[in-house]
Amino acid sequence: MATKVYVNKEVNVNDEGFLTDPSQWSVDIAREIAKEEGILLTPKHLEVINYIRERVLKGETISMRSINKSGIVNVKELYELFPNTPLKLACKIAGVSKPASCV
Amino acid sequence: MKNIVILGGGTAGTIMANKLRQALEKDEWNIVLIDKEKTHYYQPGLLFIPFDIYKKQDVIKPKMNFFPSGVDVIFSEIERIEPDMNQVVLVDDKHIKYDILIIASGTSIRPEQTPGLMDNLWYNKIFDFYSLEGALALRDFLRKWEGGTMLINIVDLPYKCPVAPLEFAFLADEYFTKKGIRDKVKIKYVTPLSGAFTKPRANKMLSGLLEEKNIEIIPDYYIERVDNEHSSIVSYDNRELNFDLLAIVPLNMGSDMIERSGIGDDLNYVPTNKSTLQSEKFENIFVIGDAANLPTSKAGSVAHFASDILFENILSFIENRPLKAHFDGHANCYIETGFGKGSLIDFNYDTEPLPGTFPLPGIGPFGLLKNTKMNHYGKIMFRWMYWHLLLPGKELPIEPLMSMAGKCEKC
Ligand SMILES: Cc1cc2nc3c(=O)[nH]c(=O)nc-3n(C[C@H](O)[C@H](O)[C@H](O)COP(=O)(O)OP(=O)(O)OC[C@H]3O[C@@H](n4cnc5c(N)ncnc54)[C@H](O)[C@@H]3O)c2cc1C
Description:
The complex is a heterodimer.
Chain A: E1 2-6, E2 9-13, H1 27-36, H2 43-57, H3 64-69, H4 75-81, H5 86-93
Antiparallel strand pairs in A: 1-2
Chain B: E1 2-7, H1 11-23, E2 29-35, E3 39-41, H2 43-46, H3 56-59, E4 60-62, E5 71-75, E6 78-82, E7 87-90, E8 95-97, E9 100-103, E10 107-109, E11 126-128, H4 132-144, E12 148-154, H5 164-179, E13 185-190, H6 200-212, E14 215-218, E15 223-227, E16 232-235, E17 240-242, E18 245-249, E19 252-254, H7 256-261, E20 285-287, H8 300-318, E21 331-338, E22 341-347, E23 356-360, E24 364-368, H9 373-390
Helix pairs in contact in B: 1-8
The structure holds flavin-adenine dinucleotide (FAD).
């Protein structure tokens, strides 16, 4: 398995750079991953990310609809925060696996 | 007398009714099965209807044909479950008590959830192939169609039978080729996924096939609405795609009855222990098939494999033993690839589809992640197996848990 170093901490990642162990995640690491993706994390980003982590760590699957229903952002706003591939990007920064990796 | 109540008599509910009725004493256990519809649809067969390969009669049979005697069947819409009272309420306010509840209410399409989808182009230029009406309407349309741009679009994840829209694309390519109009049809596969399929090796194989057949793939596309005036779909990031024909997999959601009961997630799937198939919240509720929020495909093969596990665990539950059978998320899907060939994928929660042979190492007869004639026969044979072996709960020549035999990780 590949590893990567963020803020002096070694974490396990898959070949697309997603953390494979969500417990290795921290907000500082999130900032670094976001920077690599050209995103400067704002409190709104973090709200979305925390929501995703909470859901995924409970074993639930995350979809566009669930974010839309979260009351945090709607899908349009999600695209503004995480451009192009919002769900994937948000999951990557949240340190959880790619959405729908189960299909 | 104790009661097992099964909600839904589709693939999973029917299998469970057959298995349990055979195993449990009739003077100890009453089995009640509730479904709102009298017709059983062979859903994998819907895929073949638009292309005039199957007829309506090939995919429907009366549900009653498949329930064993000694099961009380009630045809009624279920209003809700009241888990704290251990009872189910029907629309006519009838209350049914249970000792054990099995939820097998599946998932269905919700075209009304996408703005503009059900306006004047619906069943005019826009069709689904996940319902019999949709598949038949599309068949009639295709018989007369002379070409143009066809979009195949998936609204959101998860949706049942994740390979079905790909198969639809492959069969469409064959259909238009044989009709002599393939050069007049542009086929575009528009998906919210980042590729043809999520898992890397299957993705590579299936993307290769799309390319070979000149089907353009448009990934990472989340549809927001349909513009009926411009005959186009528009994504949340404002990418507009025009169509002359739109074949769509609308949003899939679990039964509204789950929402009315307050026991589902935001797509009405029931949080379920992925290993024991027990509800996460209620000890005496079990969930099987598309209704569960399991991180595996929503497919008939999964329901079938899960039924062996659930059967064992329910017997254990009845005898107050720990639930020892563990489901691994095993899925096994034949993929029609057109022109009499097919592919096959076999995987579970942890192992992605790998190349190799199936079920016998080195022998097959089926080839995993390969494109062969034999795999196509597998799909065709599956319909017979479905009606005669699978629904009645008989043994199939495949083990419920995935096996690594015949698979090659390094290939
Ligand atoms: C086009 C297409 C192709 C497919 N191809 C394949 C394939 O090749 N291989 C494969 O393995 N799978 C395939 N599938 C998927 C497969 O058909 C389903 O995964 C499977 O049928 C799920 O079984 P189930 O019992 O969970 O749900 P279903 O079989 O859908 O049964 C659910 C039942 O619950 C009843 N119900 C729901 N709500 C209520 C209510 N409120 N009151 C009363 N009754 C209710 C419904 O009437 C229905 O009978 C395909 C599906 C489609 C649409």
